């Protein structure tokens, strides 16, 4: 969801500080993300996907599609709808655009969280600040 800073990632995942730090270190060691300093005092980093991390996007879409099909009730609806910028139509669950059939790439997607999911994200941010 385009969060790059540790506190944003922790707030959105709900993970403990130790778990988030360990996973980011593991992702960095595996070449999936890279750290970029954004502050010198105190030293602070942002985490950005590498080319290897970007290439993993179709796997993330497949996991998302599975979760939408098997882990939710029909009444819940899709948490995030994606529009494929290339064709301008809803992308569906991927990994191919349901309208034009092209492989979905993260940089070509516009995300639109449902009202319920947007409220859940806001609540997580507020709880993290408290």
From TrEMBL:
| Organism domain of life | Bacteria
Keyword Transcription annotated: yes
Cited InterPro entries: HTH_HxlR
Keyword Lipoprotein in the entry? The reply is no
Domain HTH hxlR-type residue range list: 1-75
Supply the name of the protein: Helix-turn-helix transcriptional regulator
Q: What is the lineage of its organism?
A: Bacteria, Pseudomonadati, Pseudomonadota, Gammaproteobacteria, Pseudomonadales
Which UniProt keywords are listed? DNA-binding, Transcription, Transcription regulation
